[in-house]
Design a protein that fits this description.
GO terms for molecular function: hydrolase activity. InterPro entries: AB_hydrolase_fold, RBBP9/YdeN. The protein is α/β, with parallel strands linked by helices. It is built from 6 helices and 6 strands; from the N terminus they run βαβαβαβαβαβα. The protein has one domain (5-186): 3-Layer(aba) Sandwich (Rossmann fold). 33% of the residues lie in helices and 19% in strands. Strands 2-1-3-4-5-6 form a 6-stranded parallel beta sheet, sandwiched between helices. The longest helix is centred in the middle third of the chain and has 13 residues, at 73-85. The termini are close together.
C-alpha cells in the first residue's frame, strides 16, 4: 500500500494538540504521509453522532485507500463509523481499545459518553470491509483493562500487539512507538 490516507480518531477530551498527536504529526509530515487528525466536538460530553458526522465529512473528501487509527474512545468511534457508513478500509488500528461491551457506557458514572455504547456492534458485518485490524494495548493500562483488548482481538480476528509499560498510550512519548507500528503495517 503506497498511497493511503490515515485518519486519526482521538480519545475522550483530546484534540490534535493533545497526547502524542503533535509528535506523530511532525514525523508524518517529514515522511510526506497523507493524514488528518480532526478535532471532534463535545469536550467532556461528546456525542457519537456528532463525532461520526465530523469524521465522515473528513473521510469523504479523500479517494485514497483509508487507514483508521483510533485511540481510547476513538476505537469505539472507529467501529461505529464502520458500522454506519460501511466504507472499505485497508487497516484499522485500535490503540488502548474498548471491547464491544455495552456496559462501557457506565464508565465515569455514565455521564461521559453513554451514547457511544448504546448497542453491541455486529462485528461480523464490518469485518469483511476491513483488510486487517491491529490492536495495540499495554498490560498496565489504568483506564481500559487489557482483557478488553483481548476480547476485541478475538471478536475481530485482529492482530494483538502487547506492550507492558505504556499505560493508556496517551503520553507524548508514545508517538515513536505508534509510528513504528504504523510503519510495520503500512510499509512506509
Amino acid at each position: 500500500m503506497s498511497d493511503f490516507k490515515i485518519v486519526f480518531i482521538q480519545g475522550y477530551t483530546a484534540s490534535h494538540l493533545a497526547d502524542w498527536y503533535p509528535n506523530i504529526s511532525k514525523e508524518l509530515d517529514k515522511l510526506n504521509i497523507d493524514y488528518t487528525i480532526p478535532d471532534l466536538p463535545g469536550g467532556e460530553h461528546p456525542h457519537a453522532d456528532e463525532w461520526l458526522e465530523t469524521l465522515h465529512k473528513e473521510i469523504s473528501e479523500s479517494n485514497k485507500p483509508l487507514v483508521l487509527v483510533g485511540h481510547s474512545l476513538g476505537t469505539r468511534t472507529a467501529l461505529l463509523y464502520l458500522e454506519k457508513y460501511r466504507p472499505k478500509v485497508e487497516k484499522v488500528f485500535l490503540i488502548a481499545t474498548f471491547s464491544n461491551r455495552v456496559e462501557n457506557a457506565k464508565r465515569n458514572n455514565g455521564e461521559a459518553y453513554p451514547d457511544f455504547f448504546t448497542h453491541k456492534i455486529d462485528l461480523e458485518k464490518i469485518k469483511p470491509r476491513v483488510g486487517k485490524f491491529i490492536v495495540i494495548h499495554s498490560k498496565d493500562d489504568p483506564s481500559i483493562p487489557y482483557k478488553q483488548a483481548v476480547e476485541i482481538v478475538k471478536d475481530l480476528d485482529a492482530k494483538l500487539v502487547t506492550y507492558y509499560s505504556r499505560g493508556h498510550f496517551d503520553l507524548p512519548d508514545n508517538a515513536p512507538i505508534i509510528l513504528k507500528e504504523l510503519k510495520n503495517e503500512l510499509g512506509f
